[in-house]
Amino acid sequence: MTKLRFSRFLSVFLLLSSLIACGAAENGITQAPATTVPATATTASAGVAPTAELTPTATSSVSYPLTIKDSLGREVTLLAAPSRIVSLAPSNTEILFAVGAGDALVGVTKYCNYPETAKSIDQIGGFSAKSISLETIVALKPDVVFSGDESQQTVIDALAQANIPVIAIKAETFEAVYQNINLIGQATNHPTEAAQVVADMQARIGAVTAKTSTLAAADKLSVFYEVYDEPLMTAGPQTFIGQMLELAGATNIFADVSEEYPEISAEEVVNRQPAVIIGPESHGDKLTIDLIAQRPGWGAIKAVKDGKIVVLNGDMLSRPGPRLADALEALSQALYPELFK
């Protein structure tokens, strides 16, 4: 799948996520109709992060003017610490709150729903470029805008022409998430808080892998991660979802693909016989035992026969930010509850 196609898909995915409420269910793999692992919303999980190119010390401070190279390789100069910030992606919003810059937010997307305070901030539109109101952003007089990836290029260019600094943020791996958290911490004059978020996140991830690394190869569960069903899509190994499966002690049945989010055939899923099927709750209505069993040949899949379907909070799974630590904890506990008693 091309970057552009995935960006379009992501816009649809965010829309679907916003329409599905968080389900409450037991934290494990069960029979009926699928296991839904609820999102955690603790103060600790809202402030978690990793290491990056910009790794401040406990006594570091930021000097302005500050020039930063963003995720698209653009050099952006900030003349002073920003006091008015607009975020064009839910993951950016979560990072800004996590590093202590949430009070400076004056504009967010309609999908920015975490933490709860984000819902009360003025909205500038959706995630896709065509849904974002440039007029609203300009009227908010931001000192800086934190955008998404290339899918928002037209917005980035238009704001740059209006002399509004735009820092593009994108990530497909845990390491890139760590870098982005530190970058946003630097840009907003919260380097120490960002470094702590990174350290906390890495500590929690380390606590999980300390347990899952004890699994013998024969005990690792084979997993099919379903991003979407029409077209049928999964997550490759070079994404943070693919990395998360590995960290959780699972074997991604499509770990051999080179694309980030490839379209795959239903027949190939049947051939690879996953022991567990996992997906986001925004897609949960398609991931019931009854509906999956109706797909041609899928009734013979081990995961379907054993009723091992796990539905996780889609926001935690899909947003490259601090709550990836929450997602990893929920995923690993659902797969191997015996390790976390």
From TrEMBL:
The keyword Signal applies. Residues 1-23 form the signal peptide. Residues 84-339 form the Fe/B12 periplasmic-binding domain. CDD domains: BtuF. Keywords: Signal. PROSITE patterns: FE_B12_PBP, PROKAR_LIPOPROTEIN. Pfam families: Peripla_BP_2. The keyword Heme does not apply. InterPro entries: ABC_Transporter_SBP, ABC_transptr_periplasmic_BD, Vit_B12_bind_prot. Belongs to the bacterial solute-binding protein 8 family. This is Vitamin B12-binding protein. The lineage of its organism: Bacteria, Bacillati, Chloroflexota, Chloroflexia, Herpetosiphonales. The gene is btuF_2.
